[in-house]
Write a structure and sequence with these properties.
Order of helices and strands: HHHEEEH
Number of helices: 4
């Protein structure tokens, strides 16, 4: 494919989908996934650095492995009147936004995307569910989003990503948490 070919990065090509719609959907998906990666990394960094702080030593400081563990740990850190008190409201907003939008983020990051003519964009995925009582099975998820809905999700994700960057910079500027060696 030539570098002038607008479909060179297309994950899916449909003869019925306008190329500009495909480009726009792919751009918004990339923005959303990239922004959420930044938010998640910032929250994990804050959690790991907090776990090295003596003030938070009484809190179970195992490395948060799942989204739920990360959120739970950071909420516990927020209840302590420790070194993050000055940025607690900002951290709470970031944790709340991360928690509220995580399902969309996961689906958009891991699902198959179909861009239909004249919108919507359809995201669908299968997930393995482990169930010791009833046996393992799969669940199917599908959402349909318009360009305006994708734009709203992208805007929220980028706003939270910028907020995460500002928060991380404040923590560093004021030495609220130990830095990594």
């Amino acid at each position: 494919m030539s570098t002038d070919d607008p479909l060179r990065y297309a994950v899916e090509v449909s003869p019925w989908t306008p190329v500009e719609d495909l480009r726009t959907a792919t751009l918004w998906r990339g923005v959303i996934v990239g922004a959420w990666g930044s938010v998640e990394t910032a929250l994990k960094e804050i959690a790991l650095r907090a776990s090295r702080c003596e003030t938070f030593a009484p809190i179970d400081a195992r490395i948060p492995n799942s989204r739920g563990d990360l959120i739970e740990y950071l909420r516990l850190v927020l209840t302590d009147p420790g070194p993050l008190s000055a940025v607690a409201s900002e951290l709470k907003i970031l944790v709340d936004g991360y928690e509220a939008s995580a399902e969309h983020r996961n689906l958009l990051a891991h699902a198959h995307m179909s861009v239909l003519p004249n919108w919507p964009v359809v995201f669908k995925t299968f997930q393995a569910k482990r169930d010791k009582l009833n046996g393992d099975h799969f669940s199917y998820s599908e959402i349909k989003l318009t360009i305006d809905q994708l734009d709203d999700i992208a805007l929220l994700a980028t706003q939270l990503s910028r907020a995460a960057q500002i928060l991380r910079d404040k923590i560093d500027e004021h030495d609220y948490l130990p830095k990594f060696d």
